[in-house]
Amino acid sequence: MSFLIRPSYWFVILLLFNSCESIPFLQDSSTEKSIFSVTIPQIEGAREKRDRYEFIGKEIIISSDHPLASQAGMEVWKQGGNVVDVFTASSFAISVLRPHSTGLLGGGFAVVYLPNKGKWAYDFRERSPKKGIASFYLNEDGTVISGKTLKGAYSAAVPGNVQGILQIQKQHGKLPLSVVLAPALRYARSGFSVYGDLAGAVAKTWTSMNPPMQNVFGIDKRAIREGELLIQEELAKTLERIIQNDKLEFLEGETIQKISEYYTAYENFITIEDFKNYQVKVTEPLTSSVWGHTIFTMPPPSSGVHLVTMMNLYSEMQKRNTFPKGEVGELIRIIEAMRVAYRDRAELGGDPLYTNIPVTKLLSQSYAKEETNEIEKKVVSGSWPTISEENKKPESYNTTHISILDKDGNAVSTTQSVNGIFGAGQMVPGTGLVLNNTMDDFAVAPGVPNLYGLVGSKANAIEPGKTPLSSMSPVILTDNSGKTKMVIGAPGGSQIPTSIFNTLYRYLIQKEGLYDSVSYPRIHHQFSPDRIFLDPEIKASYPQSDLPFYQVQYIRHRAKVFAVAREGDSLIGVSDPKGEGVPLGF
Ligand code: DON
Question: Where does the record place the catalytic residues (predicted)?
Fold first, then answer.
């Protein structure tokens, strides 16, 4: 059968992975290239890592958060695949390779741009099940039941990753599922070496995993360690069934039967009916002109619209001469643009089928002008009101992004997730699949912060069938001549829109190289808490003493950017040097 791979081939791939550090483009380099300007700060260690995290191709380029996921994409490209085949192969592969970040029981978004065919925004994010109502998560007195949206069976929403990716593949891919899923199947069955980030995630969540999950992510009843081989045999079998049964596997196959059996112990919170009702949403991408480019991104419930507002506001503020000169003035412009965008997100953000989001207004120049007038009043008067108290929440590293671009401008930008580290911490027995905990992306009660410290309003309240608000904002940019210029996105919870903003700002406004732009220390503000977060490397440029009207915290920005760009005849790929991934191409 087509999914049976010759054992010798598994060996070659395993060898490839195990010897990644000896492949020149994956190697760390201690020699500093002359191209680096000492005036461009980078996050700690980034300068030395450039050879590993940057790749230049001519035909195709991919940037993802695991070398083998990028490799999976290139493998199907070499077999005659197009960018969508690359997307499908790398998406399934990454769900095997980063099970703490994403997975087949997660959800996501993808913006697809095929210049000769069209452009689409695919929303295959999780939806609240029919039983998912707000009161389910509240005590009788209206207080929130601690942890119910965060861990366990009730924290999961109806997943969409498999349905979404298969639909995109069916509409635009060229190769059969047996070919595009072959790398993922191989990684699950033959295993791969556990890397530091995955080992850390397993160790951190070990005690809260259910027994089937401990069986997969443990050896001798302890958490699997860095360097050990992770084999996911049940997941391999699930992948084989998807290859055979396509989307029916999630409607009437063994996988959905097993999910439904698991939920009999949990009041049938998610049912087969929920899977049957699940619809992938396909729309036009949200399109806007900004910073000399056209941006295609996801409409709500993604945060793409707030990213564009942020960019527009920055440009409007640049036209005013009332802001302080120099770096402090520039920081104020960036921070105040972020503050407004995240305020809008908190107040208005939610599923557009359930709440009215004034997208046209938020994208308009008149809105940017009005909001800039308000910011200007604060700057001129020196009166800086602060807003609500800080709500500190644990941070995590998860979710994933893949950027793909070929020489003809065909592009895919996709962000996928199980939300928190290992989602719900529950594996559905017999499937190798980990449930998401995306119910936490709803505002469980107005003003109560989620895992990422983000607050929301009634617009993002839990309701059956509803899609939770998301920070995931996959982006594709075209230049003035209409050619695809750039594909970018990031994992990182609340820091997703600002990490994209920071990188676009360095690349398009400050005209720095793509690698320098990705690894430049970042600036973040998310409205609540009312605080600036700065990467420690720029502390000297922005000491608290120069910013008496702000509260500043110097802390590592956790979002990881995956970007590819066309520069002349070259395709440049960069994976964030904070991560484990690499860009690859031809
Ligand atoms: O959709 C969202 O906004 C979140 N589920 C994303 C979570 C995430 O990026 C976690 N990464 N650190």
Answer: 399 (nucleophile)
Closest by CA position to 69, among listed 493, 403, 413: 403
Q: Contact, 314 vs 371, CB < 8 A?
A: no
Same domain, 388 and 400: no
Q: How many CB atoms lie within 10 A of CB 65?
A: 29
Rounded percentage of the chain residues whose pLDDT exceeds 90: 83
Question: Same domain for 233 and 114?
Answer: yes
Mean of per-residue pLDDT scores for the chain: 91
Rounded distance from Cα 497 to ligand 1 centre (Å): 11
CA 543 to chain centroid, in Å, comes to 31
Q: Helix, strand or coil for residue 398?
A: coil
252 and 128 inside one domain: yes
C-alpha 376 to ligand 1 mean position (Å): 32
Find the 493 Cα to ligand 1 centroid distance in Å: 4
State yes or no: 470 annotated in a binding site: yes
* Better pLDDT: 444 or 472: 472
What mean pLDDT do residues 273-278 have?
98
Residue 342 Cα, ligand 1 centroid: separation in angstroms?
15
Annotated binding-site residue? 419: yes
Atom of ligand 1 nearest to the CA of 395: 12
Helix (H) or strand (E) holding 122: strand 118-124
* pLDDT tens-digit readout, 411-455: 999 999 999 999 999 999 999 999 999 999 999 887 788 888 887
Residue in 149, 205, 399, 467 annotated catalytic = 399
399 is catalytic: yes
Q: Is the pLDDT at 60 greater than 50, yes or no? A: yes
82 ligand 1 Cβ < 6 A: no
pTM greater than 0.90 (yes/no): yes
CA-to-CA dists, residue 239 to 2, 178, 233, 253, angstroms: 13, 10, 10, 12
Which ligand 1 atom sits nearest the alpha carbon of residue 303?
3
**Stretch among 4-8, 104-108, 316-320, 556-560 having the lowest mean pLDDT:** 4-8
Range(s) of the domain holding residue 449: 70-279+396-460
Q: Identify the residue whose C-alpha is closest to ligand 1 atom 2.
A: 470
Q: Per-residue pLDDT averaged across 3-11, rounded?
A: 32
Give the ligand 1 atom nearest the CA of 468. 1
**What residue's CA is closest to ligand 1, atom 6?**
493
Residues 455 and 504 occupy one common structural domain:
no
Mark whether 366 and 239 lie in a shared domain. Answer: no
Cβ distance 156 to 427 under 8 Å? no
For residue 328, is it within any domain?
A: yes
Residue recorded with tokens 């360097």 = 227
Mean pLDDT across 361-388: 88
Q: Into how many domains does the chain fold? A: 2
